[in-house]
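Handout, section 3.2

Students often ask what a structure token actually looks like in practice. Rather than define it abstractly, here is a full record for Formamidopyrimidine-DNA glycosylase. The first block is the sequence as you would receive it.
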Amino acid sequence: MPELPEMETYRTILSNQIKGRVITEVEVNREKSINLEPPVFTGQVKGAMVTEIRRRAKHLIFQLNNGNVLLLHLMLGGRMYIGNENDSPDRTKQVIMSFGDRKLYFIGLRLGYLHLLTAAQLKDKLDDLGPEPLNPNLTVDTFKQRLSRKKGTLKSVLIDQKFIAGIGNCYSDEICWTARLQPERKVFELNSQQVNELFLAIQPVLTRGIEYGGYMENPAYREDRKTGGYNQHLLVYDREGEPCRRCGTTIQKIEIASRKSFACPECQK
């Protein structure tokens, strides 16, 4: 599932390619992927200009010049591709938005969605999300206060979107490895120094993920050579059986609340 770095990578690419362009056609091939009847949805989207693309947690927000927004959550298996009639992935497209001869394909929106919302509806939809981990207003003191109210494992807390927004399976493991903490540790077991280390690991891990284009392998357009680059730089996630990059011990795969997780049994305590 795309997480903060993957969605930030999409945001940058789409801002460069479709920001300021008018949506000339809309094709809906799966009604459950949108929130309105297809004629209503297409009628309000077609002819609108995308004036801005921003990210909140794992969502992308397409701001339209008519005041409405398109809220995208790719969920598990979702992706996007920018192409044209002659450059199109051989996959079922749930929604297609055209910008003249350029097309934005929404693929794999079985669990994900593309909803047309008013500004007020958008606020309500995102209101219960936690703070953005890359926001400078998220201080270590704020983090400690929020963490002190949580129970459960580090893994479950880090991926809780109400606690902090945008972190999922992959980057929670990367953060725990960087902080030298086991993802199955209970949060109440952490001392003040360990909480500090956990906080200090979050921003560098996510920034590094963005720098390398995230871990999702599918390119966003034909010449895309950046998306998925983080796969070559993973610290611990999906590295079962490989040597730890820090101490050389074999990385183990564990299961925490039915979620796969990866950790070093030696240098993560």
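Discussion prompt for tutorial groups: The first helix runs from residue 4 to 17. How would you have guessed this from the sequence alone?
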